[in-house]
Write a structure and sequence with these properties.
Elements: H1 4-14, H2 23-40, H3 81-116, H4 128-159, H5 164-167
Helix pairs in contact: 3-4
Length: 174
């Protein structure tokens, strides 16, 4: 009997006329559904911990009805999810490149400091290590500026109504 159960389940799933949907078909249908929802202006429901009344089990009955989001919560014209993702990706790529440069400059500085400690080297007022230290300070400042810029774009995307997963690239792009 236990051996027949998986066989029966497989036969039910593979019978003719059973609608099989590929992932691509599902993604296409989901994209169409999202476009239709955007076209109609339906607000997405967002639940926070504060929305759930204390002492409830978290059932749907405990969640208050949502109000329609104001028109300003819709993404603004010209700033699509793709544009936010592109800006964030570009900034993340720049941050990685500058961090790599910073690591290389720190390694070069370490080697230069070792060479300056050798007795045969005379200390000069404008040494290579001083220039490397200034380069490292500049790279640190640039990385901080890029991170602040990335954070600003991310927060602007949140204010425009996009979800964190969408901005991070963990969602289907519209």
């Amino acid at each position: 009997m236990k051996r027949l159960l998986p066989l029966a389940a497989a036969l039910l799933l593979l019978r003719p006329g059973f609608p099989a949907q590929s992932l691509a078909d599902h993604a296409r249908q989901e994209g169409e559904r999202r476009k239709e929802v955007d076209r109609r202006g339906v607000a997405a429901k967002t639940f926070r911990n504060a929305d759930i009344r204390p002492g409830t089990s978290g059932s749907a009955a405990a969640i208050p009805p949502t109000r329609a989001a104001p028109a300003s919560a819709a993404p603004e014209k010209g700033r699509t999810l793709r544009s936010f993702r592109a800006a964030i990706s570009s900034l993340e790529r720049s941050i990685r490149q500058e961090e790599e440069k910073l690591g290389a400059a720190r390694r070069r500085l370490e080697l230069e400091v070792r060479r300056e400690r050798l007795p045969s080297r005379r200390a000069s007022p404008n040494t290579q290590s001083d220039r490397l230290r200034e380069t490292i300070r500049e790279l640190d400042r640039k990385i901080l500026r890029l991170r602040a810029e990335r954070r600003a774009v991310y927060e602007e995307g949140l204010r425009a109504g996009w979800q964190p997963g969408e901005l991070d690239g963990h969602a289907i792009l519209r």
